[in-house]
Amino acid sequence: MSSSNDIIVPEQFSEMAPYRGKDFFAALNRLVKDPGFEHAVRYVMPDVDYPAFVESLLQVKDQNEFQTQVMGRFLEMLAASTTRGLSIDGEENCRPATNYTFISNHRDIVLDPSFLNLCFIRSGLPVTQVAIGNNLLIYEWIADLVKVNRSFIVKRDAKVVQALEAAKQLSAYIHYTLNTLHESVWIAQREGRAKDSNDLTQESLIKMLALAGDAPDLKDKILEVNLMPVSISYEFDPNDYLKAREFLLKRRDPDFKKSQRDDLFSMETGLLSNKGRVHFRIGKCINDDLSRFESTDRTEIIHHTCTLIDRAIHCGYKIYPCNYIAYDEINSTDRFAGEYTPDDERSFNEYIERQLDRVDVADVTADERSYMRRMMLTMYANPLTNQLAASERQCL
């Protein structure tokens, strides 16, 4: 693989692709001079020696060193301070010299791919490029930060007329990254997070991936991107109460939409709050199973691809006591009572009540609080619900 500094990205991808070479260094110099970036660094790392931090940033040799040394150390600090352990298994499913499209469920706006890449750094595996929506690039310094950190930009605000062209460009870039740059990519299985943790792959995403490629038919175009399902399991979702708040506001007003400030606060909360244990499970590339699918109908191929991804993700969840507790309460059963203790149950219920107390909505009625509580329990029950259903269809 060529050095990051040697690669000249084609003009058609220049606006969306990660910074490389002189653009990478120019962005680093812009970043360290931006008051917004300095404020964010001091907010996340209150004890930081900012001048020394800036000096270390400006001394990195390339993008790889930035990711492994600067971001890797920062993420290790974040994992140590906000989790009870970050773990991964299934790395043996990654074949050397093969580049993958890692496709996962989506829990945290920033940390899902960041923690996955940290696990790869720990394991000595290559880090991936990361798809990130332009709706999150609220400030110019955020755009610079994600693009020096090997992220590529997904246009989420394109008008209907331009949406197809944007999808074609994104598909072409992913194929180019895998087959020309020989780098892997990460992308969420759907646009935005599943607020209720009912993780299902969007068919439009698979259609997008098949818009580009050298293969003559749809199935072979999908096979070209080597889809590798990844299951992400957070013991606690720091944004659970914010999602419950959004459910309530949408219940009150079906036209409610989050603001940019809401997105920024979600990013901050996800970064800095307790997540309990965090686990990644790398599944098997779906190519072998997809290759055996005999239908030539486009709709059936897309649907089957989504089914393979969903089944792998659902089977790969790590189930924590809170998931068993939520499942039993939602379903009015004691089916999994042997998987948690009375102390686990009391602690989880206290946690739910504390989180509900943080919802900053005026005049919440007892019925509305009960509704939000049920939605939060549903978030924690759904991974187990989906895993049980997937197990009946034979986990891979």
Describe this structure in words.
The protein has 396 residues and is α/β, with parallel strands linked by helices. It has 2 domains: 4-236 and 274-317, Glycerol-3-phosphate (1)-acyltransferase; 322-392, no CATH class. It has helices spanning 21-33, 35-44, 50-58, 63-82, 111-123, 140-148, 160-179, 203-209, 218-224, 240-252, 260-272, 287-291, 298-316, 321-330, 342-357, 366-392, and strands spanning 86-89, 101-104, 129-133, 151-154, 185-188, 227-234, 278-282.
Produce the secondary structure layout.
Layout: H1 21-33, H2 35-44, H3 50-58, H4 63-82, E1 86-89, E2 101-104, H5 111-123, E3 129-133, H6 140-148, E4 151-154, H7 160-179, E5 185-188, H8 203-209, H9 218-224, E6 227-234, H10 240-252, H11 260-272, E7 278-282, H12 287-291, H13 298-316, H14 321-330, H15 342-357, H16 366-392
Helix-strand category: alpha/beta
Can you count the helices? 16
Looking at CATH, which topology of the largest domain would you report?
Glycerol-3-phosphate (1)-acyltransferase
Characterize the main sheet.
7 strands, mixed
Strand content: 5-15%
Number of strands: 7
